[in-house]
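Chain A, query sequence.
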Amino acid sequence: MTYNCAHLLEDTFHRLPQGVFDELIISDDGSKDNVKEIAEKIINNTQATPVYLYVNEHKGYGGNLRNGLKKAVELGGEYMVEIHGDGQFDQSITPVAVEKMERDDLDFLIGSRFTNLRQPLKNGMPLPRYFANIGLSFIERIVLRIPWTEFHPGFRMYRRRFIGKFMPVWQKEKVADDYLFSFQIIAFAAWISARCGEVPVRADYHKAHTSVGYYKAAVNSFQEMGVLFWYTLAKFGLKNGIFK
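Chain A, predicted structure.
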């Protein structure tokens, strides 16, 4: 799990679909709130599914996600589901996502809020986020040639073989520690022609959640264009960074 809002963590945990996960990892990005206490409470009160807590040096979303994925690989996970601890994204789709991963032999799957263009607005997505997501995703879909309806999902599922290919790269090459890392994963998937798919998901903007602020989101958008620039150069033979 990745998260940055401690008081929502326990509620998110209790709303996870039962009987789906073999193991759960809570990855704490060196937080200064009471995440550790909540995580230990979850661990002590849970018997059906093993839950592990890993406290890391604070780096940011990207660094925390990498630590979580690394631990999942070490535990032998075949499918790894990225869960944001604020519970904004509906995790009840996880069984459907697992089934699609297996049926279509996918490497990387996302939960998209935009398979129905009206649904994000019904769920309370602010208009600036709505139109920015549509515009950016349109550009990224054309450049990366991944037929997703959005490229900024909060529900993701990774296959072990895909992370096994990316992990040596991120350990060798410089990658982002912030939210940009989530897009670098997508660009790398396009670079190696990974098998990608999507399922519909709902995200609740009415309840408390931890979306990135508009300023950081704007900065991240420009950074994503930079990733697309280097990706395009690599496609023309000027290989660089993670695109080698």
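The chain has a mean pLDDT of 91. Residues 6-235 form a domain with the Spore Coat Polysaccharide Biosynthesis Protein SpsA; Chain A fold (CATH 3.90.550.10).
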